[in-house]
Specification:
The longest helix is centred in the middle third of the chain and has 24 residues, at 35-58. It is built from two helices and no strands. It is mainly alpha-helical and 74 residues long. The protein is elongated and about 80 Å long. It starts with 8 loop residues before the first helix and ends in a 16-residue tail after the last helix. It has helices at residues 9-30, 35-58. Helix 1 (9-30) runs antiparallel to helix 2. The chain has a domain at 9-57. The chain crosses the membrane at residues 12-33, 39-56. Keywords: Membrane, Transmembrane, Transmembrane helix. It comes from Panagrellus redivivus. This is DUF5668 domain-containing protein.
Length: 74
């Protein structure tokens, strides 16, 4: 899959969450993992979500200060 622009951390997290839900559903249907493993996966995902939210808040672009128009003979 190709993208015309890079993914933001939130988009990447959304894609990861969707993949995780699909994978957990498949594993539960196949009875390959038990409930303890599901809670561990959810805890790790929520921890990752908290980290991404912190990173997104820190990475907000800084608006440049507007330049004043100065006359050449000031």
């Amino acid at each position: 899959m190709t993208f015309s622009r890079p993914q933001t951390p939130r988009e990447a997290l959304g894609n990861m969450a969707l993949s995780m839900v699909i994978w957990i559903t498949g594993q539960c249907c196949a009875h390959w993992i038990n409930l303890v493993d599901i809670w561990r996966l959810i805890a790790v995902f929520l921890l990752g979500l908290a980290v991404v939210e912190l990173v997104c808040d820190e990475a907000k672009p800084v608006k440049p200060k507007p330049k004043r128009n100065r006359l050449p003979f000031e």
